[in-house]
Amino acid sequence: MVLTASDTIDRNVVEAAKTAIRVGYRHLDTAEMYQTEGELGIAIKEMIDEGVVKREDLFVTTKISTEYALAEKKIEISLKKLGLDYVDFPLLKGPDADLQAAWASMQAVKASGKARSIGVSNFEESHLATTLAGPQTQIVPSTNQIEYHPYMQHRELVRFSKDCAEGRGIAVSAYGAMHPVTRNPNPGGPLDQTLTKIAERHGVSVGLVCFRWCIDQGVVVVTTSLREERMKEYLRVFDFKLSEDEVKDISDAGIESLPNGEELVPRAVQYHRRLEAEKELRKTS
């Protein structure tokens, strides 16, 4: 369950996080830039105090957005806001840094015991390859969290992630899995028709089919909502499974629905590509 909010402590976000824990969510996803670490920390403390969960029941992810070389200090700040001794899974939010130095800093965070595992977000193949090739790289990123849905399938990136690091691989985690519903670039197109047909067959919503399409390909899904009824609905994703043919039909329809069959490029990736281009331009000017 992803938590986002405004600059100030928002009791609505605290209550949403508590509701998510009560209905069964155990993976809680926040970030420095979301500015919800304080709210999540309050929610976790109150749920522990009420005896609903223990700390070890929860899997807490946060993301470092800037100054990667100061990862240890940044994690200290996040831990203070969260009120925790460790975070289960800190991520580098994007590849706009000296990747090998940044990853060395993340390894130091894990070595300090302040993180159980470490990963990245919005990395493309070249960024993962550069990170893995670092002379100080000893730990393979556990996960790369990316925007992933039938319009953005990242086939080469997913293939590289599964096969890299001498077969150890990097798991793929999906945000934006429901974008074919919430930000549909081709309403009424082949993907809409395919998702609707499959949803009716299983007696579930189109959004749940989008989630299941990810899960049945071994991709971890993170989602967000402030509404209890939706949180409960999303957990129904474990009540059914797609066939291999259904997964393929959705994948094919996603590509067919796009101009020239070219996948959309995530906004986060566009942003980091623009930063890299500007950096190269400054070198040559």
What does this structure look like?
By secondary structure, this protein is α/β, with parallel strands linked by helices. It folds into 2 domains: 129 residues, NADP-dependent oxidoreductase domain (TIM Barrel); 118 residues, Alpha-Beta Barrel (TIM Barrel), CATH 3.20.20. Strands 1-2-3-4-5-6-7 form a 7-stranded parallel β-sheet, with helices on one face. Helix 2 crosses helix 3. The chain is globular, with a radius of gyration of 19 Å. One of its GO terms (molecular function) is oxidoreductase activity. Keywords: Oxidoreductase. InterPro entries: AKR, Aldo/ket_reductase_CS, NAD(P)_OxRdtase_dom_sf, NADP_OxRdtase_dom.
Helical content, roughly? 40-55%
Q: Please name the fourth-level CATH homologous superfamily of the largest domain.
A: NADP-dependent oxidoreductase domain
CATH class of the largest domain: Alpha Beta
Summarize the biggest pleated sheet: 7 strands, parallel
Q: Give the amount of beta strand, in percent.
A: 5-15%
Oligomeric form: single chain
Order of helices and strands: HEHEHEHEHEHEHHHEHHH
CATH architecture of the largest domain: Alpha-Beta Barrel
Largest beta sheet: strand ordering: 1-2-3-4-5-6-7
- Our count of helices gives 12
Could you report the average pLDDT, rounded to the nearest whole number? 91
Rounded to the nearest angstrom, the distance between the terminal CA atoms is 44 Å
Query: How many whole angstroms does the radius of gyration measure?
Result: 19 Å
- What is the count of structural domains? 2
Q: Could you please say which CATH topology of the largest domain applies here?
A: TIM Barrel
Structural class: alpha/beta
Outline type? globular
